[in-house]
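Q: What would this chain look like folded?
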Amino acid sequence: MADTRGAEPPDTTDLDRLRSAAAGCHGCALYQDATQTVFGEGSKRAKVLVVGEQPGDKEDLAGEPFVGPAGKLLDRAFEEAGFDRKALYVTNAVKHFKFKRDERGKRRIHQKPGRTEVVACRPWLLAELRAVRPDLVLLLGATAAQSVLGTKFKLTAHRGEPVEAPEDVADLVPSAVATVHPSAILRAPDRDEAYAAFVQDLKAAHDLLK
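A: My prediction, written as structure tokens:
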């Protein structure tokens, strides 16, 4: 049986040490099928820390966050909203790819991480927050938002709004904005409308830095 006691990051704010330690994480069962841990990347002095749900197929293979179709859309939206991707720190609430195989056993289909997996991986996210100490945390999708703001947070009620973090993470999250995950835009019936709304959310977040 796998040892799945939850993540146990080392007591450090050195992102390189954290990344190296996360590579061997067995905090939940997802490591058994994933290619590798996909840790966060970006500026150690980033004013904005971006949190997504989990790595997808492309990210799992590359070992880098947001390099697939959703990542390309996100890069375009960041540019339109005034963010420089290179100045951000980008990560995920869950660091391993959760998937199922299609009927032919070839294509890997994304599965939403469960609460147990989000909780197991949360210590890595908190360690990243301690290391970067951002001015703003941008949360992409309900899984990311609830991993930081708690399970009672409703994205539909507070999308694009500045929100206060709960007491247990208030010292790490001075300000937060939650919006949809870019993959939701790729699935939207009207992509242009969904994309425009997404960019508006990002612009609202960017305005908080001024």
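The radius of gyration is 16 Å.
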